[in-house]
Amino acid sequence: MASTTRPRRGVASSPRASTRISRYSVRKTSSMMRWSTSARGAGRDTAETSTSCPPTRTRSKTTSTSTSSGAIGSASTSPPTTARRTCGMFSTELGRLQSSHPGLRDELASAHRWLINCGPSAILEVATVARVLMIDEAKADAILRLYVAEGVLETVSCKRCRSCTTLNDVDAKYCTDCSNDGETMFDIADFIRFSRASREKLKARPKGTLSARENVTTYTPDSKLHITDADLSAEHIKPWVSLPQTEEGYLVGCERIGDDEIKRVLSRLERFGICLIRASGFSTKDPVLEEIAAMLGVPSDDQNAVVGSVKRIAPTREAPPTTGNSSLALGPHVDGTQDPTTPQLLMFRYVVNAELGARSQFWDIAQILLEIPEDERIEMIARLSRLDAAEFKKSTGAFRGPLISLRTPYSASWRYRVDDIIQVHPDVQADHDRLQERLAKRGLEYLPRKNDIVVFDNWRVMHGRSQVEGETQRLHDRIWIREMHPEIQIRLGLRPLPAAAVAALKVAGSGA
Fold first, then answer.
1. Which of 18, 67, 137, 501 is most enclosed, with most CB atoms within 10 A?
2. Last residue of a domain, one of 155, 181, 214
């Protein structure tokens, strides 16, 4: 595979000079990947150097007939904004790949968004791509190979010299451009980088101010590109795949519980839909959970036919596997699916932790919906909002109705679970399967500490738990907040919602 490097000004074009240049560039490169094609074996090797090329969010505005500002189901028209015209780059190749490999449609779209934000000189590594896209390495390897076949990427053949094409006739594992008169040998392997044409496209990316009309593209690989940080900020929401357990993330560390601490909790609840409260100085006997609940809203008087605002949960092997009383793994779900209305907030306090396992898991449905292409998303919302979308049956009650419904004029609540409790309408089955697939590979995993308190938005965030192991009896307390105090003016639930989605939800709610 021919590939050349233009010599730097003032540097002689010689094998030795080429070696010095390439060694410097290798040290500066952001990531490296080996695809093994050595003379002695054919499997894929692991990377010897791995520093990922970080993905960056591409901001893009597109025009739309919708009157809503950036929303979960639609694009928006907005004033001029500073942006980089990248979302149309390589879109023709992406369209061909998605047509010929429909099973990789979502992964290819995510890979496309990541690729167009990499630098022209980036060396791509299978492990890095797999980690960024949250897929297994075999699938990442296949995606890179598809892009090589399309000409977007190419392979080069020396880990030291990125432009090497000449190999020694005697020893195939030795690069004549990088050798020191044959005294030093360097293994030959295949590395992946952008092709020459792709590098030129990436270098030519325009910068500066583009109007909304100038930034319109015929193909949009990821519908989240339509929603800018400003759009999400207006709705006080920050969707996530995972979150850091820091003060900048969803953690509130404190020594007391007062107005200032509650304000910090509410801020995280509104933006992330979840908050971890780690209050030092309190014991498990102190009624901290009840005090925080009283500051936030009105606790439910019963939970699943258990009377009392606080339910102590002690998982056992004998309990049904679809309840928190079971020590078996619990799939993603929201609480109260069998009731006429679901609680607005859930609160957990971890009293005694398990010896092993029992990792708490959370999923942001706002993020998952944003990752679905906009035209499909609007249609999905309409199907999920039908009055016979699903039926939930438990020993304590049953509910038949929509999976998504308006709870305020501009936000919706989510009612869903992944277990045998739910039975969906045949017209919703494809959406049900798609959601299960996405929930299987996304989520925030958290190992609780004793006395930790977690508060989260039950209209937006699903939760689950890995299997409880060991001999110690795990204990945690739970409170359902049916509704928050009216003076607490924060936004909860799924948002922003486009006009088309709101209209569909209103029609479904009226039974028309």
1. 501
2. 214
